[in-house]
Structure formats: C-alpha cells, structure tokens
Design goal:
The structure is a homodimer.
Chain A lengths: L3 E7 L12 E7 L7 E10 L2 H5 L20 E8 L9 E4 L6 E5 L4 E3 L14 H14 L6 E4 L5 H12 L3 E6 L2 H9 L5 E4 L5 H8 L4 E6 L3 H8 L2 E9 L18 H5 L3 E4 L9 H13 L7 E5 L4 H8 L7 E5 L2
Parallel strand pairs in A: 8-9, 8-11, 9-10, 11-12, 12-13, 14-15
Antiparallel strand pairs in A: 1-2, 3-4, 3-6, 3-15, 4-5, 5-7
Helix pairs in contact in A: 2-3, 2-8, 5-6
Chain lengths: 331, 331
Amino acid sequence: MAGINRQIQLVELPKGKLSPTHFTLAEAPIPSVSEGEVLLKTILISLDAANRAWMQGATYRDALESGQVMAGGGLAEVIESKAEGFAVGDLVFADTGWQEYIALPAKNLNSVPRLEPLSYLISVYGIAGLTAYFGLLEVGQPKAGETIVVSAAAGSVGSIVGQIAKLKGCRVVGIAGGAEKCKWLVDELGFDAAVDYKNEPVHKALKAACPEGIDVYFDNVGGEMLDAAILNMNEKGRLIISGAVSEYNKAEPRGIRNTLNFITHRLRMEGLVVYDYFKRFPEAQAEMAGWISTGRLKFTEDISEGIEGAPAAFIGLFEGENHGRRLIKVS
Amino acid sequence: MAGINRQIQLVELPKGKLSPTHFTLAEAPIPSVSEGEVLLKTILISLDAANRAWMQGATYRDALESGQVMAGGGLAEVIESKAEGFAVGDLVFADTGWQEYIALPAKNLNSVPRLEPLSYLISVYGIAGLTAYFGLLEVGQPKAGETIVVSAAAGSVGSIVGQIAKLKGCRVVGIAGGAEKCKWLVDELGFDAAVDYKNEPVHKALKAACPEGIDVYFDNVGGEMLDAAILNMNEKGRLIISGAVSEYNKAEPRGIRNTLNFITHRLRMEGLVVYDYFKRFPEAQAEMAGWISTGRLKFTEDISEGIEGAPAAFIGLFEGENHGRRLIKVS
C-alpha cells in the first residue's frame, strides 16, 4: 500500500535521564505485506514505564538499539491480510512500536474482541490491568484482613491494585505524590489511607498509616520508597516488584539497603513479568469486566492525540505527570 | 547447687564493627532450679553469624541488651531436674547463652539422642545443617542440571549447601576467600568450581564459572557479593538470603543496587529462618545422617576450648577465619 508511515525513532540510547533529544519523528514508506503477514494500522499506543527498561539492555525481550523505531505495545486494526484467520477490520494487540503502520507475521498476534471504549483493551484489560491482577493475586497472595501498600497508587497499575485488594477484603494504603492524588485515592477509589511522598517522609508515614505493619507491598517505584516499605513489613511479608520508575532514569540505580530484614522478617521479594500468565489472561479480563460493569472497579485514562506527542508524554511518565493510564491515540 | 558460673556478658551493643571490648568475662552463682525447670551444664556452644544480627534490634527474638549474658545456642546436659520427662544425663539443645550453667523451663527444651561425635548435634544436625537443608531445598527448589552458587562456601552452612546440591544433581560453584579454601571445595567436597573473592572480581569470575547463568544463589554474605550474583541470575532465578556476614558489622548496610533485575529476570529473593521448619527437623536429620554414614556428606568443625575464648572466636567469624563450623567446647 502506497503512503507515508510516520514513526518515532530512537536517536540514541539514554545513559541517564531520558530527554526529547533521544527521539526523532521520521517518515518511512508503508510496508508491503508478505505471505503469512497482515498489515496493521495503529489505533492506540500504550506508554509503559517498562518500555524504558528495554533501553537498559536485554530483558525478556531484546534490548532496543539506536536507529530503531521505538518499541511499544499497541492496539491495531488489520487493513490488509495475507494470513489465514485474519480479516480486514480485525483488532489485535501487537508490538506495533511507535508508528502508524506495521506488517507483522500473523502467528505473533492476539485477536481481541471489539468493545467500547476501545482504549480499555490496552489499559484495564491490557498490560496495566493484567499486571495489577496477577501481580497482586498470584505473586502477592493477599488474604482478607491483611494490609496492602501500593506505590504509584494513582497510576494505572497502582489504582487497580488497590481496588482489587479492597475487593478481596484487605486494608489498602496507597503512596502517591500530592494532596490531590491522595484525596482521590481515598474519596473516589475507596483506599483506607494514602501517603503523600512529596509531603512526608515515607518510612514514618507508612508506619502511621499501617499500625499493624505491611503484609503485601506492590512496588512500582523502587529505591528509597521500596526501602521504606521493607522497614515496615511484617514477618512473611511479600514484596511484588512490578516497576521501578525511580530507578530507570539513573545511570547508577540506588537499590535497597535493608536486605538484613529479609532474614529477620523472612521476607519474599519477587519480580513480575505479566506475559508469564498469558494463558490466564481471559480469566482475569472476565473477572475485571464483571467488577467494571458493576462499578466496583474504576479506571481513568490520560489520552493524548498524535504519534508526534509520544516522546513528551512518555518522558512525563517519569515525572509523575499522568493521572491514570497514559495512551497515545494514533488514528 | 553451689559453685561459680563463668559467663560472657555484653558490655555494650556495637554500633559498627564488633570488638573484644564489647564483651566481658564475669562470674555468677550457679542458678537454683524452680519447679518445672532443669539445671543445664553447657557442653558446646555454637557460634552463628545470626547471633550478631540479634545485636541489631528485635528480630524473630528480642534484641540483646547490654549487661545481659551473650545469647547463643548450645548443647547441654541436664545435671538436676525438677521437670517431668527430663532426667540427669539427658542431652538438650537450648538457648544456653555463653555461660557454663543455666536453669531453664523444661517446656522450651528439645531432647536430643546421644551420638558421637557430640558436636555433630549442634553443627551438621543443628542449625547449620538444617539451614543449609531447608534453605536450599525448600526455598531454593533446585532442579537437577541447574547451576547453584553459594557464598561463604567453605563455612559450615555453605559447605553443606554445596554438597547437598551436588547430591541433587546440580552444578555447584562456591565463593570463598583464598586459594586454599577454593581448592578444598573442589578437591575435597566435589564442587564443580570455586571463585576466590579475595583474588578476582566476583561478578566476572561468576560469569566465567557459570557459563549457563545461575539458577539458585544461596547467600550468606550480602552486599556487593549478592549484587554480583544478581547480575548473573537466570530468568526465574531464586535467591536464598540466609546470612549477611558482610553487613552485620556496618553501621549503615550497603544493600543491593540491582533491583531492576528482579523485574527483567523475574527473580525471587527470600529470607530464611530455619525454625519455621521445626516440625520437619527429624526428617532432614535422618536424610543427612544417611549421607554422612555413606561418606557422601563431609563436615568439618573448628572447635576451641573454654568459654573465655568465645568473643575472639566469634569476632573471627566475620573475618573469614574459620574453616568449618566454629564451636566452643565449654565442658
């Protein structure tokens, strides 16, 4: 198909703080489609802190390289198909990258049902919601009556973690930046308490907000905040390492100091990659759809338009700009 | 019973490095025995790095305080009994502390069968062996063919960890200080390789010694060495935090920097307190006795005589002086 494919390319890999100069807007031809492939038009791109980790070296996927189209997951529509089982108009999740068009082998694609709003397919039913669901329930194993703390609690993952924990009968404390976000967690989402990390020392505030200690800590931040949580963990406490937004932009990560508490309090800390639960995604999505339809799980999105705005929107993630899931509407 | 009870008291709690001035040799009367108690004569005291952690604050036991008899586990003989089920001559494990005599309620005591050498009751069949056994097998869940790395590998826990891992069909790499200890691990204990941390950077040496990465890391050291292991862990790798001998003597622990790897490699790190497996001790002891009697599990001890030498022998633990389990023969 003739035409222009606008895309955001990586100019160079960041060594420390990410800046707009690491990206450039480029134009490429719309790719042609080989046998077994489909041509996709990107509808929405999801901006995840994890995309930043891909710039640090090989992880569960190959490391990004300069000159490449920036990688990222998207919701896309099939506009041409040379693959069995895929027709024009089908919706798929794919690693589209930050671009308007991509041709991909059909065997790596997941069809998704068309539902409204479409954005929910890559937010609450996508990686954010699934990470919250499996991270909290499978890695964290919370029990009713236990105290759960989640950092970046006003973010897309954190806000779902907290609400699911409430649905499971836990006492829930969120850590967020600013009085407004903290008020929203308690008043709108039903958290039991919130700690404003911009306004109070987290270690002491957690101690006050969790008089019976922390049983499960769901971490999206890392570093100092993780260390503060460790000091407040109960025996046999579980720490879920889902993200480390405070660490990605540092040339040298800070890490944690309080490893001795792992011995004295028999703590368990575990990292999470949601794709490990791939086969159980439908089960989680069905349970969350039930909660959403009955108003027990609320979700907010922060959508900007146009692929050209992706770098700035992405960089803003690491400054706590967003309030809810950050998405780019491409078409 | 009239007589003198020599004991080592804590003069003050250390803020940083432990020194002989933190201890003093004192004399107290031999305690009298109340109803339900037994009078114990200490035979052997076990020196554990964990005893140092008790000086840092409350853990799974109350924090130590200055003026107290230094706490520690021992093997003791009942020399007077006012408790049902205990007779003169019975052997027990107890928190005797570093002293010659103690009267204790019988309900907190575990009888042990008399076997030779008696020292094995508080070394390989005691906390060291049980920590190695349950830490490796229950927390680590090693599979045949996997690569296991253990730090402080020439120590009492580490040397057992490595040998059990070999018995379970794993490839085993030990980290120890000095060429002599490393040679002993490979030549005498059957380790596949050893890394001399005094002679080579651990991160690179581990990479060379573990060409297929590390699946299970059993840590007795903490800090920098733990961080170096994290960088070499395979996906779904398990880290057992059993001790942190490099951290106890610091006013501010160093901790670890590489927490991002927990996400990228789905690592799990878990602290261990062996008493959690209390009910399964006989099962572990029976399996280890089988290995020892057939020569497949070797064990060395480092025994000094006299309670007065306990502080120096204990301080030496943190300088890597010992070669095998360090015990004090009291009587």
